Amino acid sequence: MDFYSMTDQAIATELGQRIRSLRLRRNITQQQLATATALSLNVIKSLETGRGKLSSLVAVLRELGALQELGNCIPEATVSPLQLARRQGRQRQRASGQHRPPHSPDDDEW
Amino acid sequence: MDFYSMTDQAIATELGQRIRSLRLRRNITQQQLATATALSLNVIKSLETGRGKLSSLVAVLRELGALQELGNCIPEATVSPLQLARRQGRQRQRASGQHRPPHSPDDDEW
DNA sequence: AAAAAATAGGCTATTTTAAGGCTACTATGG
DNA sequence: CCATAGTAGCCTTAAAATAGCCTATTTTTT
Question: What is the CATH number of domain A3-73?
């Protein structure tokens, strides 16, 4: 499955179908999943068609026993020893490096 | 990281921080990421604190080059040969198996 | 076949998110 | 230390998600 050739919506739809497959493998109804997650039936339907909130996804994946996989998919950014050396033990807190020199009247840009 | 011992919100927050780490590893600003994903700056901020829509997550992960990992985290439900045999080649389309027999006056449940 | 259960889709009200702008705070580079 | 860029936070308006309910369709069971 090549996600990079798919639109965002197509990917979301695909994820929804996978959620549905996970649910059906457990043979539970949308209503049962809704009750178990304390979400409404509508939310389960929406998720299975690729719409909804991130927090809803988390709740559903927990109930379907797929939380660990979710954790693996967005890796913890481990700081390499090299980077540590470069920045005296602190990791970057803001993006940077695009400073332009302060503007002086000598610069005749027009 | 034991997700199952965390609340949904805590997990979403953790995912947000990982997204931030991915962004900072690329050394791009929230504004640059917003522009690249055609989302607003506010959405990027929200995602990094664990709120937002599934479609926003997909767009951001694409830009950060983590789409493939997302695909891996919600596995495609492959049908086992055993299941195929059980259901004459069709896979289950609805959850079921919890039918109760039609109520008859003989049943004296109270 | 009929009956029942599961799901899709619509509708309204409420809550949350998205967009855009603005200010305050703070890390970063010079 | 100073100037500036990056980020957090709040505000308003618009869009989308959610909850709850109801009806129609389709699958599954009997």
Answer: 1.10.260.40
Q: How far is CA A58 from the centre of its chain?
A: 10
Quote the CA–CA distance of A41 and A44 in Å, as a whole number.
5
For residue B20, which phi and psi values (nearest 5 degrees)?
Answer: -60, -45
CB within 8 Å of A19: residues ≥ 6 apart:
A47, A48, A57, A60, A61, A64, B74
- The partner residues of B53 in beta bridges, in order of sequence, read A53
The model's pLDDT over A4-40, given as tens digits with 9 standing for 90+, comes to 999 998 999 999 999 999 999 999 999 999 999 999 9
Rg (CA), chain A: 23
The protein residues having a beta carbon less than 7 Å from any atom of strand C are A 23-24, 29-31, 42, 45, 48-49, 53, 55, 90, 92-94, 96-97, 99, 101; B 38-43, 46-47, 51-53, 56, 94-96, 98-100, 102
Amino acid at B92: R
Contact A57, A11 (CB under 8 A): no
Which of A21-35, A75-89, B37-51, B82-96 shows the lowest per-residue confidence on average (mean pLDDT)?
A75-89
**Phi then psi dihedrals of residue A53, to 5 deg:** -95, 155
Query: Taking the model in full, what pTM does it have?
Result: 0.86
Three-state DSSP state, B34: helix
Amino acid at B72: N
